[in-house]
Protein 1
Amino acid sequence: MTKYIFITGGVVSSLGKGLASAALGALLQARGYSVRLCKMDPYLNIDPGTMSPTQHGEVFVTDDGAETDLDLGHYERFTGRPASQTDNITTGRIYMNVLQRERRGEYLGATIQVIPHITDEIKAFIREKEGTADFVLVETGGTVGDIEAHPYLEAARQFSNEVGHDRALFIHATWLPYIPAAGELKTKPTQHSVKELMAAGIRPDILLCRADRHIDEGERRKISLFCNIPFERVIPALDVKSIYEVPLTYHAEGLDTEVLKRFGLPAETQPDLSKWDDIVDRIKHPESEVKIAVVGKYTELSDSYKSLNEALIHGGIANRVKVRLDFIEAEIFENGGPTNALEDVHAILVPGGFGQRGTEGKIKAVQFARERKIPYFGICFGMQMAVIESCRHVLGLSKASSTEFGATEEPVVGLMTEWVKGNELVARSGEGDLGGTMRLGAYTAALKPGSRVAAIYGKTHISERHRHRYEVNTAYIPRLEEKGMIFSGLSPDGKLPEIVEIPDHPWFVGVQFHPELKSKPFDPHPLFVSFIKAGLNKSRLV
Ligand code: GLN
């Protein structure tokens, strides 16, 4: 029977609960168990799809087209198990489900309340995972003590009571701040947050104590005593240089061992962590360095491009090089701004994006890469900008633009109102809702035999994840192909451009999808491996 591990957080947010959950998932997998991870987000949006990435970080998209929390990206990267719509829930979605049911009359006669109706809905989200894995890890977003988090704690408490102590376990992640004046790590916030959790009826089984330095035995004993948790279950979780070290360090501190012991499962044999050892070794001992400029507009929060950063690192792992990312605000290239910021980089990438701000700067960056023969990778918006750039500067269509920025005489990128998914026709109107209505999730593409991308993928049919509303207009293909940009990936019906490339360039590829979402440290995405390699070749020339 499935066992459930609840992960909560205390003291502050941003403790890396998502990473901790993902790392524990990887450790349990390394011990031969199957795992499934899911996340409950206390905010009121139905999903993060309409939020700016600077609010809550990147929006992670699953194969089945769900726009989800970026922690699902960590789960996939660490466990290799594809996430789905059913792995992420928000308070908004919970309420929407309950209220829709109320309107249908399914609760006739009843008063709808947080307990039991909202908590029942949360429990149903957890319970539907029964039987899908040996361990289901359920992470609750936010911090214990938040008003929004309360129904989730209550639901988790009820759930653990229903399935029984031997099938449910609580891990609480906390923070031990270092006070320089006192010269010590402080345990009091942890004590208070455990107290808060106990007030919700949950006694944590394991404490994961985040700290920026060694936690000495005395401090651990103190936490154990005051929080009523056995010493060996007060687990130090210190900062590490690379997130891929986390499974190794948590294992060294006994996290997976304590989880198994608490469930009464055998814990004597050691898990096989050789793949993690290898990844960490490659990260710690690179043979050289590649400098990549990421020209975007959400550069103030690195979580905005979480999967992208990781996929680039994976490309570095595969090539045994350190990848240095230079995040550059696209707007600095506008109005004659300096392109010398791009002068000494080995490759340029324009990532996904929305809206007009910064687009002229992105187009300048593409032009620089194309003309100066610097490896260029355009992702989603970055592909659209690359096609607009070629239309303007190679075909001489100075008005080339996207209808995303308003009416244009040369709609090189335009709104798609109909497309085919599998055997189904999907239709959208230009005036519809903005939430959840983009071309989302996995679509197949057919690659041109003999093209660069066909060689990179080593096959001619691929499936990649999408998240965009606009498409490159096929009417411009013949003119562009005549001038050297080829459309080497199309939807199977030939209607949607998926990949462009310039064969007469060291490495120039634009993709309409988000390959970064599927890259894993131990299974790096071929496009990123190839792009970093191109950057490496460039670095050897300069
Ligand atoms: N804004 C563009 C579109 O909607 C690109 C989206 C993206 O880069 N994810 O088509």
Protein 2
Amino acid sequence: MSQVSVQPSAVDSTNAKRQKLCDETKQSGSMTTNGQTNGAGGEWFGSEPLATNDPAIAEIIVKEKQRQKCGLELIASENFTSRAVLETLGSCLQNKYCEGYPGKRYYGGTQHFDELENLCIKRAQEAYRLDPAEWGVNVQPYSGSPANFAVYTALIGPHGRIMGLDLPDGGHLTHGFMTSKKKISATSMYFESMPYKVDPATGLIDMDRLEENAKLFHPQMIIAGISCYSRNLDYARFRKIADQHGAYLMADMAHISGLVAAEVVNNPFEHCDIVTSTTHKTLRGPRSGIIFFRRGLRNTLKNGTQVMYDIERPINEAVFPGLQGGPHMHAVAGVAVALKQTMNPEFKQYAANVIQNAQVMCKKLVELGYKIVTGGTDNHLLLVDLRPTQVGGARCEKILEDISVVCNKNTCPGDLSALKPSGLRFGTAALTSRNLTAEDFEKVVDFIDKGIKLTKEIEPLCGPTLKEFREMVATNKEVQAKITVLREEVEDFASKFPLPGFQ
Ligand code: DSN
């Protein structure tokens, strides 16, 4: 068979031209625009800046940037990603369809994307200190929810049995959430879900009850993952329970993936078969998802037979073409950048500070008389139980938002209704990214305390519903004046701290 007749000199010449264009782009300092204006004749070409092309959207972005800079962001699942990650998201990578996997794409023009995806996979293995012979990675899930759905689809199939931490007890929607009246998450519609709970007295996961219930339910998969639980998970105990049923153990480390990378919390990779995650929480990357799956020996039977893992192909096929089309390769590039950043000593220090700051918040809140669920925290989040203060989570969230302290209402163990949550969840990952120190976090707690006290003070001024409360807050001039004083204090404080990713 004859070789394709491309002369080396022609290839060299193409490469030289491309290199020149790359150098010019780098020199212009912008990976996102090429500085061109409208095409000849004034027809639209697409190179105007957003502010010119769509001032309405540009203005919304400016307002949101102001909000992020002037406020105190304490949503436990949020963070500020780096400028380098933001550059990938606004890059030409977003233009390309790339269905398939490295070496097996369904479209032409994907030669650079194989290099990109393989680099992202390699960095994921390095960031979590994984041997590629034992762990494979899929970096294509659009986020954590599709990642979890893909794993269930691949490994247990329709009506397979899952056990996850109940949402009101600190689990996630995609761990099979349903209520007595309704199947809420598709993971409870398409799979059979039996949740496990925390002990309402301690707030800690009731592992004994999980073990007992598993004996009745015989799960095919147990999910060790949280969205509002502040303690280290006992992965070894989860493993033991899963093994009693030959079940897979999946960790959803979305909240703590940055902390796992930095080795400052328990490591799910030591005991799990599958680990899923989002990439934008403590990991500080772009909004995306990732699945790690075991390779090699699964176990050895009593008769000596070796059982090998066979989960890589089903998981990859469930992600694409099972549930997704083309991966968002600009996000994959951002994940690769974020994973590289986690391997810097600065990131390890950052992750340690995130936990220290959460513990400082707990200590100060306790000093001020608040109750913390489980009594403290081992990670980036804490849950304040407002029942002793007799003021509702939703009202406090509203007043705190009005004074530019952003957090979310959350159920506490033993809450009777998820619609009337009696707690507030706080996380320290985002503000630690803005370089707030332990001392600054004490000041943040003072603002929270003032917001909660103001809520309690003004609550009697209206009827019992949240709607009435909101109307009263919006119309009562004295209340507005008090909110304004507090908001200005918070914003003067918050504005001093730089916002990563922006000059
Ligand atoms: N919604 C996220 C959280 O706030 O925990 C999890 O996906």
